[in-house]
Amino acid sequence: MVDAFLTLFCRRVEPLRALGQKHIHPPGCSIGLRFKRGGAKSPLWASRMHVPESPLHRDLKHLYAARCGGELEKRVEGFRVDVISGDTIYEIQVKNLYKIKRKIQILASAGYNAVIVHPLQGILDVELPLRRRRRIRRDQNPLRAFIELPYVATTIAMERVALEIPLLHEVRTQKQWRRNRVRNTRLVEVMELWRVDEPGDLVSLLPARLPPQFTTREIASSCQVGYDLACKIAYVLNRSGAAEKVGRRGRFHLYSLKQATPEIGKTE
After folding, report:
1. Residue 145's CB: how many other CB atoms inside 10 A?
2. β-pairing, 79-85 with 71-76?
3. Which of 49, 55, 93, 109 is deepest in the core (most CB within 10 A)?
4. How many whole angstroms from its chain centre is CA 118?
5. Half-sphere exposure of 152 (CA within 13 A, CB side)
6. Are 72 and 82 in contact (CB under 8 A)?
7. Are 245 and 209 a contacting pair, CB within 8 Å?
8. Alpha-carbon gap, residue 173 to 91, rounded angstroms
9. Which helix (H) or strand (E) holds 89?
10. Radius of gyration of the chain from Cα atoms?
11. Domains 55-197 and 208-258 share a fold
């Protein structure tokens, strides 16, 4: 049935393609059938759809640019970076860290000092029209960063790559008649900042000291987190080089830290 649909669609599209029409996509088709202007040598997706920048991302860019005296939105090695100061690049990503993995790897290989900025929400103030402001407090520790860190675990292990985790105080303005639609999220202040310069520093993000050899169950019990998050923590420590597998204890993998790491200093 799918083949019949594609055959029928191609018959209808072929005359339009000869006239030099723009890209045409079959509605609801996930196969990615695309056509471009006749004779054009540019790739099919040379120009991507413009995604508006969030106010929170813009506030963080200006904050980092003012802190290091850098420039905003510059082209480096074919990529558009958020902030650049000398040979240091700051790339801000709230979630979906896999989207900047390739960019960071290429920039670090080109000789730039790449800093991944992964902010976490510490305090959220929600403002509604004709209502009193409501305050939501999150966990004041960086363990939530390990939810996204598995995507860049091997990237953190590269030279010239660092990780910064700022804990933010945010304020969100929300429409009253659309309860789940966010209108605006702004930055109030950076409450705390954790920095990881080498893979061994990841151990200091944990609230409790791990034994010399440990499993995911011991991570979950010592850090008081769920088993899924404990598995992600173990995966990040292993893939980044902060820990290594040394065997098994029952049905669990046994890990060992490669070196002792001092605590990371926190800056406000």
Report:
1. 20
2. antiparallel
3. 93
4. 6
5. 31
6. yes
7. no
8. 26
9. strand 88-92
10. 23
11. no
Record the pTM: 0.73
Q: What 3-state DSSP class applies to 201?
A: helix
CA distance 109 to 104: 8
Residue 172 near residue 135, CB atoms below 8 Å: no
CA angle 168, 199, 147 (to 5 degrees): 45
- 33: nearest Cα among 15, 7, 52: 7
Cβ-based neighbours of 200, under 8 Å, separated by 6 or more: 242, 258, 259, 261
Beta strands 79-85 and 88-92: pairing type? antiparallel
The tokens 């040979």 sit on which residue?
87
Instruction: Round to whole Å and give the CA distance between 220 and 230.
Output: 5
Q: Hey, what are 113's tokens?
A: 């000092």
Amino acid type, 228: D
Give the span between the Cα atoms of 6 and 101, in whole angstroms.
35
Say how many CA atoms lie within 13 Å of 11 toward its Cβ. Answer: 6
Q: Is the separation of the CB atoms in 105 and 158 below 8 Å?
A: yes
Q: 63 pLDDT exceeds 90? A: yes
The domain 208-258 having CATH identifier 2.30.130.40: the answer here is no
- Residue 48 has which token pair? 């991507």
Say which CATH class 55-197 falls into.
alpha beta
Both tokens of residue 141?
């520790």
Residue 221 has a CB neighbour count (10 Å cut-off) of 14
Q: What is the pLDDT of residue 179?
A: 56
The per-residue pLDDT for 259 is 62
Q: What is the pLDDT of residues 5-60, one digit of tens each?
A: 555 545 554 444 444 444 444 444 444 444 334 333 434 344 444 567 888 999 99
Joined tokens for residue 170: 């945010």
